[in-house]
Amino acid sequence: MASSQSSRAASSSEADDFASASSSGAFCFKRKYSSQTVSESDDSEDAKSEDPVGASESVKTSAIKKKSRLSVADEAVEVGRTASSSSKSSIDFGLYVTKVSGLVEDKQSGQFTAYNLRDIISNHPSKLIESIQFNYLFEIDWLVAQYPKESRSAPLTLVHGSQGASKTDLDVEAMSHEHVNLVQARLDMPYGTHHSKLMILRYADGIRIVAHTANLIERDWHQKTQCGWLSPLLKPLAAEASSNDGDSPTNLRADLCRYLRRYRHPRVGRWADLIEACDCSGLRVFLIASCPGRHSADQLNEFGHLKLRQVLRQFDFGANSKDACLVGQFSSIGSLGSESSKWLTAEFMASLAAGGSPGGGGGGDGSALKLIYPTKDDVRQSLEGFPAGASLPYRQSVAKKQPWLNRFLHSWSASRSSRSRAMPHMKSYLRYSGGSGSPRLSWYLVTSANLSKAAWGSLEKKGTQLAIRSYELGVLFVARQFGLPNFSLEAANAAACISVPFDLPPCRYKATDKPWIVDLAYRDLPDAHGNIWCPPMCGN
After folding, report:
1. Which stretches of 285-375 are DSSP H helices?
2. Marked catalytic residue, from 195, 212, 295, 529
3. Catalytic residue (one of 212, 305, 410, 425)
4. Is 179 noted as a catalytic residue in this protein?
5. Regarding the domain delimited by 74-276, which CATH topology (the fold level of the hierarchy) does it fall under?
6. 286-488 has which CATH code?
7. Is 48 annotated as a binding residue?
8. Is 197 known to sit in a ligand binding site?
9. Residue 305 among the catalytic residues
């Protein structure tokens, strides 16, 4: 079974995987690694107070015993073991997708660079000296096994937000690894989580930074669509360099060091010192991070959606505004209010639209906003079957309060990367124009942040204060920052081609489509493995 005790944690707060770990009873699905899943819901107060499923660490499921339609070989054989040599543009931008088990090798090639965790850590010829991993969920034994043998005893720091029994489980697992040190992130706001996914890898000749979307548990690297950004090697500055030398034009180094120092922990702060001594001048991406707290005055625009707004305002996307669309793609949805204008089409869309409102107007009706979240049938027909939905924790208690959201929803389709059946755990946001002909992207954000106020922040005190509950982190690609008018999705346009795994334009839900709800029973049709989904206390 892939999940360890440490990954059964965190029942009710914001995150990515639904809590369900039971040592007894039958299951709605047969794959044993999937019968134990974990909770990362995205609802803050709603998840804790109203959802009995989300509030439980151990829940039972019932089963229907049907023969799986896929063989073990179909499900378990990992292919596409090397990144495509033809994915030049992806390597230039540093973007990658994770390998998908059961996907034939030629479908992992083309313009997409595909890595597993071992590839990422070993993607440099010199020896790994030490590393630090920021994440929500860890399976320490599995994680250590992904490191190259010669570096498995190198110092490894894990930054987490686990509390209570889940923290105890993590502490116990870490005891088996003398080189592993744990740092518990401070969560200053109720219902917040440590949700950032960040690696900093120190080699003998420099540092690499990885911002990504996957938990450090085996199942997150199996049959899901995940993505990330891998920096080039950041070499140490010359001894005579001043403290102001070496930052990127986007101030990424300064922003990352500010983020790291918000942890107020010496083990983490030390990494800020190491990064400050590196030459980051070649980086062209922006850092968009969130830190818990109420941010105001000169810190108002440092984090959350206001940081995104501040960066995008530096650019004029007016030429692409008339037919522009804004896309949000995510794996969890928080409580957004009784109507769209409470947050989504007001402050959040104002940040996404910064630099030129879609349609040339205010865009306040949200008509230019397209949100991608899988339907029930997307999940049912996926490689994992219904268990994939455990990582898509949109709950009845939240969904019933915001039926208005359905008019913004679009289904998951990723034929361009052959990942339509690999359910997304990635989160991304972008601006594009050009419709179905040849979409042109002004910017593209890869992040850990789902669609929630806890992740992005909510304005208070007449817009003078931004309240954020969780840690999040992402990187923003703006075409103009790379000297390009737009990014392209066409491999033929290699110089401007950026690797977005899903299809554009997205396809709006059909009249019969329903968003995946994790605590609803689905018994009408079996999944790809012949199983049904019947979570406990589902009420139907």
Report:
1. 304-312, 349-352
2. 195
3. 425
4. no
5. Endonuclease; Chain A (3.30.870)
6. 3.30.870.10
7. no
8. yes
9. no
